[in-house]
# Entry
Amino acid sequence: MRHHLQQSAVLVVIVVAAAAVIVVVIVVVGVAVVAAAAAAAADVVGVVVVVVVFVVVAAAAAAAAAAAAAAAAAAVIVVVVVVVVAVVVVVVVAVVVIVVVVVAIVVVVVAVVIVVVVVVIVVVVVVVVVVVVVVVSSSHAGIKKEGTGWKFSELFH
# Structure
């Protein structure tokens, strides 16, 4: 798309430059024709012919400039359309990327929450099992307090 945009810009520059060159050449030739004819022909008929030739040359220059301007306008329209399409594509891609990132963040947060919940459940279950085992074994085993700790004399009664 960028290459197409560059081609369109180059086309606009070429068309405008060509139109400018055509206008300059026609005006220079027309002025030279008028000057030569005015110097060569002192009579009114010669001057009228020279003026008519100049008007025809100027009209041709104007037509060429109009055609070049129309081509440039068409190229500018193409460039504008390409730029608008490029902007729309960039915006759509940006929105899609943002949505994907948000979804990925939500998935990660949900996964972290699930892991935390599972860890809490496992810890609670382990603590409950340990407490139950200690309580059950202390009620069945002869646990006696000795000094600073417990002595399990009969763990499995």
